[in-house]
Design goal:
The chain is mainly β. It contains no helices and 40 strands. The strands form nine sheets. Strands 25, 27, 28, 30, 35, 36, 37, 38 and 40 form a nine-stranded antiparallel beta sheet that branches. It has a six-stranded antiparallel beta sheet with strand order 29-39-31-32-33-34, with no helix packed on it. Strands 15, 16, 17, 18 and 19 form a five-stranded antiparallel beta sheet that branches.
Length: about 550
Amino acid sequence: MSTIQNPIIPGMAPDPSIIRVGADYYIATSTFHWNPAVQIFHSTDLANWDLISHALTANEVDLRGTNTPAGIWAPHLSYDSQTQKFWLAYSHMQNMAGREFNSDSFAMSADRITGPWSKPIYLTSIGFDPALFHENGKHYAAILEWETRPGYQAPGHIVIAEVDLTQGGIIGEWHRVTTGFTTRGCAEAPQIYKHDGFYYLLIAAGGTGYAHDIEIGRSEKIFGPYTPNPTGEPIITSSPQHLFSLGDPDAGHFERYNPRALMQKAGHGSLVHTQTDEWYVAHLMSRPLPGQPLNPLGRETALQKMHWTKAGWLEMADGSNLAKMTVAGMTGQSVTQNSANQDITEDFSQPTYSAQFMTPYRPQDSAWVNTTENPGHLRIHGHNSFFSQVNPAIMATRATSLDYTVQTQLAFHPDHYSETAGLGLYYDSNNWLYAYLGLADTEDRTVLRVLQAKLAERLTNTCTTVTIPADAADLRIRYQNGYAQIAYRLAATDTWQPLGDSYDVRYLSDEGVNGAPGEIGGFTGLFNFIGAVDAHQLKSYADFSAYTVRNH
């Protein structure tokens, strides 16, 4: 029997929603402040996954000004076999200040998983993490009703209602069904399944940190009442010890961090039934830096094999509830898991560039990034500084390993000190590292320098400056377990030269970006990027002729 190694989708790929249609499997994941929004992956063997499209590509949402970690949350895929349509539900989290969590939820449909998708249909603003369930021509939504009243169980109830997928909104009223199936609290991400006459409600709980989990309850009626799993414990978690944390709205639970575990934070999952009559749950996970509760790669996608007990309850195939790094593949399938498919080689020789490239806050638009103005190059027109949440000119790809090299080749001709272009590491507008070509302070030559943002503070390294005589260079960053070594060369035949000492960038992680005490600062992940800045006349641009990522 073949085995599958976790994570199946490394790098920022959280809140996975998995479905099967025929022999094809699809997963949608959250994208937060990144465009295009909602990643959709495809597989035929559950082990090897390819990014095939994004769902929100036509400016359906405006993510400019989005604070970390708001934006597009928890997309949910479903397939209505009666109409043979794919459905995608998602939340647009717009405000998290004051713990108000203002979020609008929508649904879209398509005849093919790659679209085109319909215009979003409004569902509700009651909370976040919507999921659709289709049965006998009717459609139901389950979602977290966000609680803001002092003294009430936080973060709120899981609620279910019939929804109108033609006109939008709900039919009837919301039905409050549970605040969680264990004592961990912080119930969210509800998803409905039907099996052997019961409606099963799969939810996430325990907070988005180290006590995260997946819980289950069931009912004979879709609106409940739902009976909790009789074990009183999660069915999947990285922290299986009993925990009582009711009333804790969403703590990171750093006390549950296990320095010996490769997988942390297992939770927020969805269920799939294979054509081989087997069951799996796709769920999020994290891989911390060695010996530290810091997760640069954010939350990734993992897979666990499941089965149904004689009493009709879902549990992991080995009978435990501890998430595993290695699981059995589907019966009768021989699978070779290709980890090299996470490497990126892009020479920009084609009119379209890799779908892996994403942009923070602003949409990708040919007016500022394209391969047509100088064929064989990706031309990026400079715009806002990278502290901006409006129009930064950044093209980025997810970091998928804790040990890798990212490299680019660029030509850039600045004529003002506020024009720059280069290569870097990026978490959000307040946290990044940038090796760039720009004018020397004397404005008489092009130089290579480094600029860093840490918790919104600007850190300038004026001691490390190298003259770039032909306005062109190759730049490289070697990232290893939270440290980044920048190097450069002036021609492909030259030897790589280090640009100063290595940089401590461990803060470019979910826990390192402004988290309140006991909470997670963000839950997106580290990206590699090429980009340009122009705070002069918006006329400068950089030409990038290569971009590669090699995971070691």
